[in-house]
Amino acid sequence: GIKIENQIKNVMNMKYLKDKLILEIGCGAGGLLNYFNKKGYKTLGCDFSSLNLNYGKKNNKLELFYGGLEDIIKEIKSSNEEIGLIIYEQVFEHLIDIKKELNLLKEIMTKNTLLYIAVPGIKNIHNSHNNDLLLYLQFPHLIHYDLEHLKMVLRDSSFKLVKGNEEVQAIFQLQK
């Protein structure tokens, strides 16, 4: 949580997020959301693990829902809350239909909404996975990114890079 918060602080004042929703897709038990929730931010998350979701709901009193972006959009639209930040932490590389996901995101984002994506960076293997390509190449990772390729994928769907690095941790906004 603090790592993401520090990256957001590099591009905008965190006060902007105070009245807006922080949404995490693939939140697990909600550890990141719990960090922001304890700081007074409104949070909402979704995941496909009932076990993890139940833990986050029970132990951290988080608002978590079963499913993916398509499922959580119904919750967001009914609450009519503005989203300030959407987080994909180690999730984006698992997505099957990236174009569909990005089109769904455009339905709920404004030009001021930040999209934070962190994926294992192919150019960062020397700092992770014991510098071993075979450890890096995990079955559930469908796509392997460096910052430039992530930027290209998002640019094709009308997103622009605000800030990023080769770990790959990147902040995007809609181009409008």
Keywords:
176 residues, alpha/beta, seven-stranded mixed beta sheet, 7 helices
Structural summary, described in words:
- With 176 residues, the protein is α/β, with parallel strands linked by helices.
- It is 35% helix and 22% strand.
- The protein is built from seven helices and seven strands; from the N terminus they run αβαβαβαβαβααββ.
- A seven-stranded mixed beta sheet has the order 3-2-1-4-5-7-6, sandwiched between helices.
- β4, α5 (98-108) and β5 form a beta-alpha-beta unit.
- α4 runs parallel beside α5.
- The longest helix has 11 residues, at 50-60.
- It is globular.
- The two termini are 28 Å apart.
- The mean pLDDT is 87.
Layout of helices and strands, plus pairs?
Blueprint: H1 2-9, E1 21-25, H2 31-38, E2 42-47, H3 50-60, E3 64-66, H4 69-79, E4 83-89, H5 98-108, E5 114-118, H6 133-136, H7 147-155, E6 159-164, E7 169-174
Parallel strand pairs: 1-2, 1-4, 2-3, 4-5
Antiparallel strand pairs: 5-7, 6-7
Helix pairs in contact: 4-5
